[in-house]
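HUMAN:
Just now I want nothing more than another pair of eyes on a protein record. I would be glad if you read both lines and explained how they fit together. I have put the entry right below:
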Amino acid sequence: MATLIDISNVTKSYGAQELLKEASVSLADDQKVGFIGRNGAGKSTLLRILLEEESVDSGQIARHPNLRVGYLRQHDPFQEGESALDFLMRDSGQPEWKCGAVAGQFELKGRFLNGPVKELSGGWQTRVKLAALLLHEPNFLMLDEPTNFLDLRTQLLLEDFLKDYRGAVLVVSHDRSFLKAVCSQTLELKRGKLTLFNGDVDQYLENQDILRERDERTNATVLAKRRQLETFIAKNKAGANTASQARSKQKQLERLTLTEIESAESTVHIVIPQTEKRQGVALACEQLAIGYPDLQVADDITLEIEHGARAAIVGDNGQGKTTFLRTISGSLSPKDGELRWGYHCNVACYAQHVYTSLPDKMTIREYLEHESAPGTTAQQILNVAGSFLFKEQALDKNIKVLSGGERARLCLAGILLGNYSILILDEPGNHLDVETVEALGDALVGFQGTVIFTSHDRHFMGKVATDVIEVANGSVKSYEGDYDAYLYRVKKEVADGHREANQQSVAKQEQQSKQDAPREKGYGGKIKEARKELSAIERKIAQLDEKKNSINEKFLKATSPGQAQELHEEMQPLVDEIGELEVRWMELYEFLEQ
């Protein structure tokens, strides 16, 4: 196990804001780490520092000589008119057959591989970027919110890719399901300090709760002891026979200190003003057709959503989820059919086209006061504003100076303070951190009104959804099953796609072997022997990896330092043997590529 990046006593400030304060952590070549922290804590800044796009104020960052960083690009790297295959070949310098093979891991084939890449949806373009990333053969991947705007299938493909990836991974994400599936360790940035925990994000947050409860119990004991000592001192400090005892107790009192409970400061609690609980149909669609003047997205939509339901709108990117939400919210007119809301439904909509048109001349405080339900107190407004990272000193900023993410959070805060019976939410968690997404989910579960929403955060979807509506292949229908059932079906479809892709890959390899036949004669039997040894090494590495993963699972559950040390000693020979086999594999691979 080699250390790829060692961060030592790093400090980084912007003006009076200190994002990193003598922060230290080491990241090794076999770690897959989920990176969490509040919005504005400095996660993206640290990534830019690791990419050498920003410098530190003090401290050191040591990089391994063989470090090869791969960063998932957020910008558009494509040229006009080029296909995904053209881009992969241009970007990586690799031959067509290799680019096609790697693209196949992300189900890039047919028009998705050979058609204009700029015409693909954001999710498919992300698949192309991931394929390009893999072709550069990095040994340390950094991904900043990779699941934003990715549909479920693309998320599952990305998960599979990262699970099988033989290298280090650092992932910033608010999606707990994604982090738990991919990362076995958790790194938190809080108050300028970096804390690395040997466990996934759920285990880390659970451990934080346990530590906080322990500290609270300790503090309660200390306070009780303080009161006893203070009472004894007050009674006995003036007595001639007891004054010395009182002085001794005073020294004991001075040694009693309370433990600072940091997590209490970061607790997020969101309360949505309750609406009248209703029964019956909230929304009815009859033979509805949706789309744009020159494009019909879906038709023959006939469904009902009951009052009190929390309906999750699911489906792949580009199928029409946002078009459906925009139609029912009234920002798009139906192309045909009928759409009816229930009697006295008060509808609020959160979506990109809404939060980009906030009133620029208002301050944050004025906007939240204007949007709040009658009777909302100033303290309630401050609490919700604080949950969305608008501290009291910032409430008098004009909306016109806010970034896109700040506008999105402000719009969502205003909606949650209002008195609405129907909430339509399009990707409400995209600009929020893990704790705030969790608090928003809790608030929506306790809301008596109706929620119609879409999200790419599986943990959030599973927590909130009571009903599932699928948008696919030109139709919008109620799904017969809960969100877990829908997730199971999509996972099975992705797995079936992997099997089909593997079969095609085998066929391509056989075809490539036939094309290489003349060269093989020139090399005599060496080519066959090399290929045979290569296959044997791959099988051996797979077997050792299984043993290593089994030991690692036990290591994560170790209950004592001794047990952990024994498991580490048991694992080390496997790590060494895998390393030797990988060196030999690379030698054979380079020989066969000549």
